[in-house]
Design brief:
heterodimer; A: Rossmann fold; 7-stranded parallel β-sheet; 9 helices; B: 117 residues; alpha+beta; hypothetical protein PF0899 fold; 2 helices
Chain lengths: 220, 117
């Protein structure tokens, strides 16, 4: 017996993500899905952002990690609400995990919800979590050819954050080349060069966040 | 590694369709995915074998079809099939410019076809 089917394999995740997106819209919560390799500075970026904008915005973080609640503890130390999801070895977060995490959050009391995905440049990209934007992070201690190796993330992200720029004098990372690779895939990509360590460039990222929150509230 | 999650969705959809069509046992599952989805065929096969082991579907075949990339030049608008992902980072062969490309095909993961008894 032949059964002709053409069904999107990710349909169940996409359906749940659409429900989450409606809910984020209803509550006017800007939701950002942070995706990078392990160690590029997602948690450090969140620590800085939560501290520096803590009086301006109400923010929370959903932390995805294969094991431990170390990152959630780091984030909670800034005073922000952090919900830890342990994927038990799993390589990405999906929309059902986000739904479960929302039980611990008051969406109506939030301006920004950050989703810190599991450190991985491939798998998280395929699983929509209902976010407004994927934010790609890349640190200058990695290869500047990451956009060529992992095109899907850089195609679909709305912003690219180049972190650890304070280390540029000591590494061979070519900022121009990384930016060119990413922009070839995605001409509308916003690129921020920052250092979470010395704070350089963070103001531009904060300005982008303020505008994104304003647009989200206007759309709610 | 997301191949395991994908296979779990594939088998859920496949058994749903099987039941809907009154079938008993899957003999062939065909999956189509784009070059951009960075799927590792061996990981898909391993996940498939694990999912069907000890079920009525044991012995079923998995057919994987990679859909090539179709690129449209943002400069001249010419569309063509690309032989590899690397072509996204090269100048357009038609106009010679480096204007970047839109991906018109080669993204998406679909359960395409089933055969059953």
């Amino acid at each position: 017996m032949e059964i002709p089917v053409v069904r999107n394999v990710l349909e169940a995740n996409d359906r749940m993500a659409a429900r989450l997106r409606d809910e984020f819209k209803r509550c006017g919560v800007l939701t950002l899905n942070l995706i990078s390799s392990p160690g590029s500075g997602k948690t450090s970026l969140l620590e800085r952002t939560l501290r520096d904008l803590g009086t301006e915005f109400r923010m929370a973080v959903i932390e995805g990690d294969p094991q431990t609640d170390n990152d959630a503890r780091r984030v909670a130390a800034t005073g922000a609400v952090a919900v830890q999801i342990n994927t038990d070895g799993g390589c990405h977060l999906d929309s059902n995990m986000i739904l479960a995490a929302l039980e611990n959050l008051e969406l109506e009391q939030l301006d920004i919800l950050f989703i810190e995905n599991v450190g991985n440049l491939v798998c998280p990209v395929e699983f929509d979590c209902g976010e407004d934007a994927k934010i790609a992070l890349l640190s200058v201690t990695e290869g500047d050819d990451k956009p060529e190796k992992y095109p899907q993330l850089f195609r679909l992200a709305k912003a690219l954050i180049l972190n650890k720029t304070d280390l540029l004098p000591y590494v061979d990372f070519d900022v121009e080349s990384a930016a060119r690779g990413a922009c070839t895939l995605n001409p509308d990509l916003a690129i921020f060069q920052i250092s979470c360590r010395d704070g350089h460039g963070l103001e531009n990222w904060y300005a982008w966040l303020r505008e994104a929150v304003r647009l989200k509230k206007a759309d709610a | 590694m997301h191949e395991i999650s994908l296979m779990s969705d594939i088998m859920r959809i496949a058994t749903e369709e099987l039941v809907r069509h009154g079938g008993r046992r899957l003999t062939l599952v065909r999956v189509r995915y784009g070059v951009l989805n960075q799927i590792v065929p061996d990981a898909m096969r391993m996940a498939f074998d694990a999912f069907i082991a000890g079920t009525p579907h044991e012995g079923a075949a998995l057919e994987l079809k990679e859909e090539p990339l179709r690129l449209r030049c943002r400069g001249c608008g010419k569309e063509r099939e690309a032989a590899s992902r690397e072509e996204m980072f090269r100048p357009c062969p038609s106009c010679g410019k480096f204007a970047g490309f839109e991906c018109r095909a080669g993204d998406g993961i679909f359960l395409d076809h089933l055969e059953a008894e």
